[in-house]
Specification:
Order of helices and strands: EEHHEEHEEEEEEEEEEEEE
Number of helices: 3
Strand order of the largest sheet: 5-1-6-8-9-10-11-12-13-14-17-16-15
Shape: elongated
Radius of gyration: 19 Å
Number of domains: 2
Distance between the termini: 49 Å
Strand content: 25-35%
Structural class: mainly beta
Length: 253
């Protein structure tokens, strides 16, 4: 097991591009090696060691690496981008693009995550104990597919466009979601424990389950009756019928 503990040296007020914070990038490296890895502070290239205190215990492959991040990382972007294995534990808030394009491993966040968490992820697990912002599990601008696989769990709420262009994987939001969850979906599963509005517009495949209230339904779904899912009865809709979509939308009766 290789454990890497990271703490900010001071409060970060300028955004940091830190895709090198990843088990794949840390595996087998010494403390000095990790400190020398590059990051961007705004438009200035610097190193992890300049911004963070880093402690390394043990050595291992990516699957054996545990990264423990203690402090406020709300200005640090792209943590865990492209990771394939290992564990990242963030004991605070985190900025955008958490776990983008990851294909394996696990990320836990004790606080909140900013927009595009799990962007285009292919596998692995992300657990956010607080809230998530916009475009959870979505694709970035111009991408035809968002999340392809893996699982994202948000214990709080999320904002608009969760699962936009989702092609696979699972998103679970225990609280409320903003507008247009699952817009343009082409696969995968979204479960919202609370309320939302206008879910599933333009979806062609996939499943969306709403356990709370839908403030406004898009007029593009066909009611197929009721159906029980895990012992709970929902109104079952299919659509988006305008595009001959085969998506399933379940809304609590």
């Amino acid at each position: 097991m290789q454990t890497v503990t990271i703490k900010p040296k001071s409060e970060l007020t300028i955004s940091v591009e830190a895709e090198n914070i990843s088990p794949d990038k840390f595996a087998g490296k010494s403390e000095k090696d990790i400190q020398s890895l590059e990051v961007w502070l705004g438009n200035h290239k610097t190193t992890l060691g300049d911004l963070f205190t880093i402690k390394v215990e043990g050595i291992g492959t990516a699957a054996d690496v545990k990264i423990v991040m203690e402090g406020n990382f709300s200005r640090v972007k792209r943590i865990g981008e492209g990771m394939t294995a290992g564990l990242i534990m963030i004991k605070g808030d985190v900025d955008m693009h958490l776990g983008a394009k990851m294909s394996g491993g696990k990320i836990t966040v004790a606080g909140n995550a900013d927009s595009w968490a799990g962007r285009e992820m292919k596998g692995g697990d992300i657990i956010i104990e607080g809230n998530a912002a916009y475009y959870l599990g979505s694709g970035y601008r111009g991408e035809s597919c968002g999340m392809r696989g893996g699982k994202i769990t948000v214990l709080g709420n999320t904002l608009d466009f969760a699962g936009e262009h989702m092609c696979g994987g699972e998103i679970y939001v225990n609280g409320n979601a903003g507008i247009l969850a699952g817009i343009s979906n082409n696969g995968g599963k979204i479960v919202i424990g609370g309320n939302t509005s206008r879910p599933g517009s333009e979806m062609s495949k996939g499943t969306i389950i709403i356990k709370g209230k839908v403030d406004e339904m898009m007029p593009v779904f066909k009611l197929e009756g009721t159906e029980a899912v895990d012992g709970v009865t929902y109104n079952k809709y299919t659509g988006d019928v305008i595009g001959n979509g085969k998506g399933l939308l379940y809304v609590l009766v």
